[in-house]
Write a structure and sequence with these properties.
This protein folds into two domains: about 475 residues, Up-down Bundle (Amino acid/polyamine transporter I); about 170 residues, no CATH class. It is elongated and about 95 Å long. Helix 7 packs across helix 16, helix 7 packs antiparallel against helix 20 and helix 11 packs across helix 19. By secondary structure, the chain is of the alpha/beta class. The chain is built from 26 helices and nine strands. Strands 1, 4, 5, 6, 7, 8 and 9 form a seven-stranded mixed beta sheet that branches. Strand 2 and strand 3 form a beta hairpin. It is found in: Cell membrane; Membrane.
């Protein structure tokens, strides 16, 4: 349990910088918190009594189908309709126009999802974990680490991408559920006024049940999505058989002709075509939970064939019956009971897609807190058996309120579709650029090998993003405003914590000098153990220094605890805990955890005592925690308005005692006033 002190990681300060919130349940050994919304046990793939049993690739593939592909799997609800409306500008669809759109959609799915994400991006895993923040951890330290209180350009770029994903997490539930419920209009036109209220009711229920977890329903997600993709495939085949000419769209020639015939307006249509690849980032983000192979199998065997066949089937239907363009997806079945059944199935698939994005926002927040880019939040574990299911109330209710506002504002999924592209395409573009940095600077690829790959990715990303920008005033401003707000919070928090760390270092004397002066200052020693949270493993925590200077009393045993968050999902077991005997009853304990883990201070101390022999008196133990008050004057380095925002975030962050799982009745807080 001991190891060397060398690490390239950033340590946390005494109030909880760069550490993860503990679960609100009895302490247990920290384990990784999965990015995905479900655990293997929750979806019936792991024997809880015999966890050593290997889960079959077949079962993992089914689970990945239910969890990973919910977002991209519900795109047929609205994508072709929006593409035709954008391409034909209200006119009747033509055969060449439909073939061109279908060709664009097919090759977008092939190149963006199959080639870019499944073929290349998923190779960039951080100890098995994926996602944009995990990708950042693969970038060399000199590019990602801050210089003083400034962030590197790669880190800033990644934060922009992460912030945009929050916008995606708001648009996805809104447009997915709304488009599914809109199918009721075809079954009974009189139900049209009830579409928005029903959508709002489903969203409220969806966010309400988040606190209860998804253990009971998780095992059904895979079969439901299997049924969903099977339905997409069957409906598509039925209509393709009636008009097989749409299969000519598999040739890229029709995509080229589409741009030749539509010129500038064809470029604008890309803002609608991109809807077919929304959810591509989820494939990469959930890689750590299921592994690359099951995700690739689920895509190749089920998701992509079903999506392509259904899109082509919708195209065949629209060519045969132009009136079906109002809602081509639900027009694939006769109006009546089949429509109601399809609405129910679509609503279930939309809830699954929404659940994935909501939980993805939880995981993204959890990682951002761990890496020091977001204020402390309350993290609750919704499963007693599994660490992977987390619930963050602040994020949950914020998402719910925003989703309801979006639905009430736009009323229709077609109006909301314009708001969808910017967040997705922005994140996709940033992922390509950061991936290039990784292959060049981390993997050592030559420029002639890396640049063509980057150009290939950007040939799709940049046109999609540029086309989406042109829809800014039609609704694209929503994810941008949301992302800008989240980005401002991340940058301000990181800058404020960095300046605070500098302030603490300047006022923290070296430990050697402090220990050498203990006898000269004639400190009284009392029975018991004192725990001081330390941000710097080589200096005296300011709390300890002021306590000793003013009170001149120290406990017999003084423990300086430093929690280090490393740029890996799970810390190495052999280096997880390091103990140093400093003499004079002082011990330094350095606990390392990954950015997917939740450190628990009482558990760390228990291990330090039982495994490393630290003499801790658990019956007479006191935790000393600092609480800073920020003055937000014009005299500091941070600036008045930035420091006001930082002070607000700091006041509303989760208290350090809950953050570290420290018993509140054993805590002494010492306050200081600081002007950053």
């Amino acid at each position: 349990m001991t190891g060397s002190s060398g690490s390239a990681s950033r340590p946390s300060i005494g109030t909880g910088l760069d550490a993860a919130p503990p679960s609100e349940r009895p302490p247990s050994r920290p384990r990784p918190a999965s990015r995905s919304i479900h655990s293997l046990a929750d979806i019936g793939l792991l024997d809880k009594e015999h966890p050593e049993k290997t889960v079959s690739v077949r079962a993992l593939t089914l689970a990945a189908l239910g969890v990973v592909f919910g977002d991209i799997g519900t795109s047929p609800l609205y994508t072709l309709r929006e593409c035709v409306h954008a391409a034909e500008r209200g006119g009747p669809p033509t055969q060449e126009g439909i073939l061109g759109l279908l060709s664009l959609m097919f090759w977008s799915l092939t190149m963006v999802v199959a080639v870019k994400y499944l073929g290349f991006i998923m190779r960039a895993d951080n100890h098995g974990e994926g996602g944009i923040l995990a990708l950042l951890a693969l970038v060399p330290e000199k590019l990602r680490a801050p210089s003083g209180h400034r962030l590197g350009w790669v880190a800033v770029l990644v934060l922009v991408g992460a912030a945009l994903l929050y916008g995606d997490g708001i648009i996805t539930p809104s447009i997915s559920v709304l488009s599914a419920v809109e199918g009721l209009e075809l079954a009974a036109h009189s139900l049209k006024p009830a579409v928005v209220p029903i959508t709002c009711a489903i969203l409220i229920g969806l966010f309400y049940i988040q606190r209860r977890g998804t253990a009971d329903v998780g095992r059904f997600f895979g079969p439901i999505m299997l049924l969903w993709f099977g339905t997409l495939f069957v409906l598509g085949v039925i209509h393709i058989v009636q008009n097989p000419t749409v299969l000519w769209a598999l040739s890229p020639i029709h995509a080229v002709r589409f741009f030749v015939q539509h010129s500038w307006h064809g470029f604008l249509t890309l803002g609608a075509v991109v809807l077919c690849v929304t959810g591509g980032e989820a494939l990469y983000a959930d890689m750590g939970h299921f592994g690359a192979r099951p995700i690739r199998l689920a895509w190749s065997l089920f998701a992509m064939p079903s999506l392509v066949i259904n899109y082509f089937g919708q195209g065949a239907l629209v060519l045969a019956h132009p009136e079906a363009l109002a809602n081509p997806f639900f027009s694939q079945v006769p109006s009546g009971p089949l429509t109601y059944a399809l609405v129910v199935l679509a609503a279930m698939a939309s809830v699954i897609a929404s659940q994935a994005m909501i939980s993805g926002a939880y995981s993204l927040t959890h990682q951002a807190v761990q890496l020091g880019y977001f204020p402390r939040v309350t993290v609750k574990h919704t499963s007693h058996e599994t660490e992977g299911q987390i619930y963050i109330p602040q994020i949950n209710w914020g998402l719910m309120v925003t989703c309801l506002i979006v639905v009430l504002q736009f009323q229709k999924s077609s109006a909301l579709a314009a708001a969808y592209g910017m967040a997705v395409t922005g994140s996709m573009t940033i992922t390509s650029i950061v991936y290039y940095v990784v292959v060049r600077r981390t993997w050592g690829w030559s420029r002639w090998k890396a640049v063509p790959l980057l150009v290939l990715f950007l040939c799709f990303d940049i046109p999609f993003f540029s086309s989406s920008i042109l829809k800014f005033f039609e609704g694209g401003y929503i994810p941008v405003l949301i992302g800008a707000s989240i980005f401002a919070v991340m940058i301000t928090w990181k800058k404020g914590r960095s300046l605070l760390a500098e302030y603490i270092v300047k006022r923290s004397p070296p430990m050697d000098e402090f220990l050498a002066g203990l006898h000269q200052r004639l400190f009284a020693r009392i029975p018991g153990t004192a725990i001081f949270m330390a941000s710097n493993s080589g200096r005296v925590p300011p709390i300890l220094f002021h306590h000793a200077q003013r009170i001149r009393v120290l406990h017999d045993t003084v423990i300086l605890l430093t929690v280090v968050t490393e740029h890996v999902p799970v810390a190495d077991e052999e280096r997880r805990l390091e103990v140093q005997d400093l003499g004079e009853g002082f011990y330094r304990v350095i606990a390392r955890c990954g950015f997917m883990e939740a450190p628990n201070v009482p558990q760390i101390l228990l291990e330090a005592s039982s495994l490393c022999g630290v003499p801790i008196d658990f019956s007479h133990m006191t935790y000393y925690v600092g609480r800073e008050t920020f003055l937000a004057s014009g005299g500091g380095k941070m600036g008045r308005w930035s420091e006001m925002l930082f002070a607000f975030l700091s006041r509303n962050a989760q208290p350090a005692t809950r953050y570290f799982g420290i018993p509140h009745d054993h805590v002494v807080e010492l306050g200081t006033q600081i002007d950053l």
